[in-house]
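B., you asked whether I could sanity-check this one before it goes into the benchmark set. Here's the sequence:
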Amino acid sequence: MTTDAKPQGCTSFKVRQLMRRISQHYDLEVSQSGLKTTQYSLLSHVMSLGPLRPVDLAAAMKMTPSTLSRNLQPLIAAGWLTLGAGADARSRLVHITEAGIAKRREGQKHWKVAQNKLNEQLGVDRVLALHALIDDAMGLLGPEPEAGADG
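And here's what the prediction gave me:
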């Protein structure tokens, strides 16, 4: 079935609107653990993938090394992550501490509440459809361009 209808408005703006609203939803709940949603995500990645080099963590999280470095600092200062020696004198590895594991566990309880509330508000079928649409769109858009590839 083909349609002559065309999208109205800017797709980027619409997606950003949705992303802001969903981020606010998760941030409100996860903040009750004393974490930002981005911090919870960072702790979760290090817990499941670590210890690992910052450059590998940045790649896994689809962020630049400088953004990762900024995001790591408060977690290191809080004692939830450490930056230790790597395989040679020049390399470093990000590790999660026992306190970081406990903080991540606390954050996970709130993340689950946020996820369940979102499932209730939107309906599980709509959330599943949204996930499928996002996955399909990401596949069609292909891999992300390399940072700095344009010059």
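One thing to flag: The domain at 29-141 is CATH 1.10.10.10 (Arc Repressor Mutant, subunit A). Otherwise nothing jumped out at me.
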